[in-house]
Write a structure and sequence with these properties.
The protein is mainly beta. The protein is 10% helix and 36% strand. The protein is built from one helix and 14 strands. Strands 1, 2, 3, 4, 5, 6, 7, 8, 9, 10, 11, 12, 13 and 14 form a 14-stranded mixed β-sheet that branches. It is globular and about 45 Å long.
């Protein structure tokens, strides 16, 4: 009887350890290195073939009791000596996008977002948003016990500007157009993230981060890579980005 109990105990322990290991792996993303290339909003550069897609999943958003309707959403990420590349592929039915300015309140309409927290010794991270119509928002967010404020770059020019393009599939890239989906492709230079990034990541460098989408069709749907409690700014729930 004792031997049987011990065997069951060991089996349960193995299952638990395997579950913990799987959860840890699920929270880690390996970022492959690339040479630099030009983004075009289509993700057609051959460089993207070096890495795999990962999915975003619907979660509850602010003031939501249940998640909105899910549409397939996937992301790729690469890094170079100069910055980090992102490609979002969003299945959609309508481009709910009317804001025609950079640094507007893009999160109130269709948008994808990247949050990057390179230096975890400080509660400061980069938030980057882009709309289907290719308007952007780049801010640095100090988050002090849930009290936060987004700060725009003082200087934003060819030395630190994000390269970004978008495209629509199955329809026109215009406000409120019926489509089958849209893509966003962008390159964030490390110079934009100074001082939270003072040198390019090396092999083995670890950042924390998360990836999001908000879709406003008949009902609002919030998507994430690592699930939060509703607010995208719960930075302690970010996953780990490991540079290969």
């Amino acid at each position: 009887m004792l031997k049987k109990f011990a065997s069951l105990f060991m089996l349960a322990g193995t299952v638990l350890l395997n579950s913990i290991s799987a959860a840890a792996q699920d929270s880690t993303l390996i970022i492959k290195k690339t040479s630099d290339f030009k983004v075009n909003g289509e993700g057609s550069a051959k460089n993207w073939s070096a890495t795999n897609w990962f999915d975003l999943h619907v979660q509850t958003g602010p003031k939501q009791s249940v998640p909105g309707k899910a549409l397939p959403t996937k992301v790729k990420m690469l890094y170079s000596d100069k910055g980090v590349y992102f490609l979002f592929d969003c299945t959609d039915k309508k481009l709910t996008s009317t804001i025609m300015e950079d640094f507007g309140t893009l999160f109130k309409e269709d948008v994808v977002e990247v949050f990057l927290w390179p230096d975890t010794s400080e509660p400061i991270y980069l938030e980057y948003e882009i709309s289907p119509l290719n308007y952007e928002l780049a801010i640095l967010v100090p988050n002090l016990n849930g009290k936060m404020q987004g700060w725009k770059p003082w200087f934003y020019n060819e030395t630190n500007r994000v390269q970004h393009e978008t495209s629509a599939q199955g329809g026109q890239k215009k406000s409120m157009a019926s489509v089958e989906g849209w893509k966003a492709e962008f390159f964030i230079p490390y110079t934009l993230m100074n001082p939270i990034v003072q040198s390019p990541p090396k092999s083995g460098t670890k950042w924390r981060g998360n990836f999001y989408r908000i879709d406003y069709d008949s009902e609002t749907a919030y998507y994430s890579w690592k699930k939060t409690g509703g607010s995208f700014h719960e930075f302690n729930k970010f996953g780990t980005l490991v540079f290969e």
